[in-house]
Amino acid sequence: MAKRFVTTTVEIEGREETKVVELPSRDPTPWGNDAELSVVGQRVARMDALEKVTGDARYTADIKVAGMLHVALLRAPVACGRVTSLDASLALALPGVRGVLTVDDIPDIKLDGVKLFDQSIHYVNQPLAAICADTIELAERALDAIMMTVEAEPHVVTAEQALAADAPRVKPSGNTPRSSPRIMSRGDVDAGFRDADVTITREYRTPTALHTALEPHGAVAEWSGRRLTIWESTQGIFNTRRDIAKAFELPLSSVRVIKNYMGGGFGAKNGASHATYIAAALAKKLGRPVRCILDREGEQTDAGNRSATRQRVTIGAKRDGTLTAITLDATISLGIGGWLAGPARIYHELYRCANVRSSETFVYMNTGAMASFRAPGSVEGAFGLECAMDALARELDLDPLELRRRNYARHDQDRNRPYSDKHLDECYRLGAERFGWTRARDAVPDYGSRIRRGVGMASLTWGAGGGPPAYATVRINRDGTIEVLTGAQDLGTGARTVLAQIAAEVLGAKIDNVRTVLGDTERLPFASNSWGSITTASVGPAVRVAAEEARDSLFEAAAGLMHTEPDDLESRDGEIHAKSSDACMLIGEVCEKLGDVMIIGQGSRGPNPDMTAISAFGAQFAEVEVDTETGRVRVLRIVSAHDSGRVINPTLAESQLEGGIIQGLGYALFEERVLDEQQGTPLNPTMHDYKIPTIGDIPSIDAFFVDAADTVANHTGAKGLAEPPIIGTAPAVANAVANALGVDVAEIPLTPWRVLALGARS
Amino acid sequence: MRLIVNGAEHDLTPPSHETLLTTLRERLDLTGTKLVCGRGECGACTVLLDGASVYSCLTLTAACDDREITTIEGIGRDGDLHPVQAAFIEHDALQCGFCTPGQILAAIALLGDNPNPSEDDVRHGMSGNLCRCGTYPKIVRAVLAAAERIPPNG
Question: What is the gyration radius of the CA atoms in chain B, in angstroms?
Fold first, then answer.
């Protein structure tokens, strides 16, 4: 049969890309809300939990290869300048030291616009050289024996410094990327403001936040002849393979990238990293396997971050709350590089408003580069927009939830296209009900007391449709066990389990007999990076198609054995039944009779619907207690209502919601990279000083889904859900603090000193 | 020196400054114990030393002569899981799993000291173990559920 290739639009991390897609062999009827499903939608236990609770799960840092060497990195001590001399001869003479890697030993590799081991220094902790030894301890000790002199030059480490008229140049081309400022506009904002009865202007600031994955970036590299195997803590095995093959001028088929388990990614592990290139280059140079794992300081300072932003927002509205115009003027601190994940998009999407204009100025500076961090851009943008909406509600003396409901967006306004499905209204209704919003709102804060209570909310949207290309193979063994093979990654999200559930559903198999194999470029068909909350909606449909193909073959085989026709058969719970008689066989019995005939189904992900926005939505509610004497904010409870289409596994999905909310709490209350502006040095590169939430900080969390299959989005009905819960958490908390204190909140994290500086209405 | 790890004796001569974490991971290949911060800030390297939880990154191997160390590999295997491990699976108290061995050992130590903890006791007792995925609500539930399941005589 002739294959047909078409193009389609896929949204990843807020960016739309056009992709070529091969039309799948079949286009199954979508599983609607009334579909009778017995495995999909069930609370199946996480499939790799046993390995994780016994310590059997091997992460990249646990991989040991015979003869393996270890790496320590020499990093830049200044924010800007150049290396004037570098002599490793003393270090190389130390016992156990096997080699050094400098800029002369490696191909020309650029990461975030900076050449690896560039002897021009662009930020503190930039890698300058690597040393390799029998143990990590020997390698680290040898660093001290490297003689290096550097010459410091003036640097800029804040957006204000970088944009000053006489600022030193961070890049030869200047301190902003060529495409900055990025302007997006619809309608006529001037006319919109003329129509407004009320106009408010506010300025918001968000911090540089660090991913702080517990497992740092790292890789183990081993060459065998001209072939290279990489074990890597990555969200994208195929991207890593592409990057490494390019750098070392290898055919893709000569590079194998393996990722079985990883200790968190959160957006920062999307391709080959410094560690990958260094491990591969040293392994090549020394002829031995090499492990390169970033230390904690390296991870916290040179492995990506969420950009700090300044957002100046003006909103115009009618007296009844109808929005007439929104403008955003934002400055985004990229650091030395990264991509342009600005806060603007959510301003254009979340509410109905004919006139919206945004300007995003991205700024280069002498600090570590940004990297995608769970809903990049929209987390920052939601803080500005949703705090401004609350400020507007106060100005209009309207209930903040009512203001949002009055400006409900019915379609994607910038691109004038419908949503595939949207149940934000249900999120508002159910969230408010479970939170007791009306009662809580009506309780006037006691402005006379030291401890103040307040409530706040925020809504959210996030592109979550996923898309092609994604491939899966389903094969059935002679004992009836089933393997789902796909080159996706499970970061701890539960992808392994969810994909197995889809296959088990189609095949009528017992879930315990299905296993998902992920994370190996050599053995598995392509799936894209696990980022942008896309894995379930991208790979799930491919698995469904593959499983349907396999089921058809299985039924063909079974029909002969059961003396009936394939379309007379149905399967459930591991048994194949004839509809016309009481004939019944176990899947395993059928396969055993086939011997080593292997039933294989191939599946791929089809195109997305044309001219359709596919998004997830949600509404988040927070109650806080603020101590006006100490400035301490305690979040008492969070209610979080989400529309992410069909939920394949409610338990794992709720775990994702809770995790996103908890990261959002960290962003709201504690997390902030602090720099010494004089030196450009990060001051809190440890887990003690960079505060992520602990178990003691966690409020009561009621996170749930409006479980409605999105049958337009794809035939599983599922959409992405991992990033949405972090988006509205910080503004909901900030709005609750504003409600408690009776003042505007303009900056996070809400550390005690910032809260005290807010003052409080008395 | 003699190190007793999960019931097995090892004769070792580690340098005096070597941490227990390094000995476990690099010499004994017990990689279930994780290195995250290396300075006693996160709890990922938690093991039991004579039944009490310690950060193995801050414990010198030389100080463990003849003492009993229990790592995650010595807690329970498939078919014979410790109630804390079973409860972590049942309540989905893990996501990426990197902090999980430390969480489980911290929970076992907590329940050893206090077999009937309140929710506050669990929060207090587990507060030295960080989780970036945000599994905390489910960890609380899992530890409380495990407490119900562990027979009173331990």
Answer: 15
